[in-house]
Amino acid sequence: MKEPTFVILETGGIGYEIKVSLNTYTAIKNEEACKLHTYLHVKEDAHTLYGFFEPTEKSLFLLLISISGIGPSTALMMFSSLSTEEIKNAIATENVTVIKGVKGIGLKTAQRVILELKDKVRKEEWISADNEQIEGGSHNTIRSEALSALVTLGINKQQAEKSIESILQNTDEQITLEELIKRALKRP
Fold it and tell me: Is the separation of the CB atoms in 103 and 92 below 8 Å?
């Protein structure tokens, strides 16, 4: 059984409720069989299972719940409101407004999330930077990922933004994230 907020996993005649985000539900709603990456949250009064379709969503979930003021329910709300990439980009670019826009998260909590996770997220994005092509809608995502990587490398944010914008305006062909960063590093 699948619902937008949970799935029931039946095994050996016992049903286990696994709480999921809307992102995970969307990914699995039409699947007959799928794999969920789970996390068991233990409290005095309850043992709760949380399920994630993507391992990156689970990893970011664990980082989020390590922050004071962010519990599993709030973290799940974040994943129901934003995609994993949107959350990572908001943290990496220190966009408090995006994080504060999630129900249940105030200004101080949003600032704490950014303060405690920005270095981890930026490092992870740099290591896992894929060769995603810039096309239409992903243009802003690649721009923000490149900006994050350049700032992490010690480039002034305004200078990095100007370089990226100039490269994107003067490039007719598709460009990978890696190539965009390399070209921006070569600019004076």
Answer: no
Is 136-186 the same fold as 6-127?
Answer: no
How many alpha carbons lie under 13 Å from residue 164 in its C-beta half-sphere?
Answer: 25
Residue ranges per domain, the chain?
6-127, 136-186
3-state secondary structure of 70: coil
CATH level 3 topology of 6-127:
DNA polymerase; domain 1 (1.10.150)
Question: What is the spatial distance between Cα 75 and Cα 14, in angstroms, rounded to a whole number?
Answer: 27
Per-residue pLDDT tens digits for 14-70: 999 999 998 899 899 888 888 999 999 999 999 999 999 999 999 999 999 999 889
- With 0.85 as the threshold, say if the pTM is over it: no
Residue with tokens 């200078």: 159
Q: What is the CATH number of domain 136-186?
A: 1.10.8
Decide: helix, strand or coil at residue 103.
coil
